[in-house]
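Before we proceed, please read the two lines closing this message. Report back on whether the C-alpha cells fit the sequence:
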Amino acid sequence: MNALACSFQGCLVLLIAAIGIASCGHHEAVTRPETPRVAATSYRLGPKDVIGILVWREPEFSRQVLVRPDGKISFPLLDDIEAEGLTTLDLKAVLTERLKNIIDDPEVTVILMESHSKNLYIIGKVNQPGTYPLAPGMTVLQALSVAGGLAQWADKDSIRIIRVSEGKEELFTFDYGKVIKGKKLDQNILLMPNDTIVVP
C-alpha cells in the first residue's frame, strides 16, 4: 500500500473517531476539523486513476474509487458519475451537488491518489528507461529523476522531448547542465500525456 493510500486511510480513522466522540453525547465539545485542502490542478481524470473521496461525518460515503474504463465511478446511493475529463475540484462540485439530495450540507474532499491514465515515456541513456505515470505538474527534470537520473555516458546537453499534438509532432530541447545551474529554466517545461523524453 503506498503512502498516499495510507494517508487517506488515516484521514478516515480520524474521521470515524470524531464521529464516535460526537455520538457519545459530547457533540458540543467536538471541534469540527478544517476540511483538507485540495490543490487546484489542471489534471484531468481518466480511466484507471484512483481517487480518494472524503465526506465529513459520513464514513459510509468516504472511500477510494477507481475510474472505470468507461470513464465513470461508482458511488453508493448515486447513479454512476462521469469522472473522465474532470479535475478533482470539478468532481468535488458534482458530488457535493448530488449528495445534497441525501445528506444535509455535505462537505466533500476529492484527492488524486494514483495516476494511471496518463503516461510519459523516457528512453535512451537514463538509469531506468521505461513508461511512467504522469504526475500532476511534472516537469522534465522531475521525470528524469523518476527514471533514476542520467546514465554515465548520456549527452546531457542534447536531451529532446517529443510531443504529438493534433497529429503534429513538436520537438523541445533540454540542456540538463544549464537547467540545474539555474539557466534556461524555460526548458524545464510541464510535461503532457504521451510525451517522450529522449536522452542520447
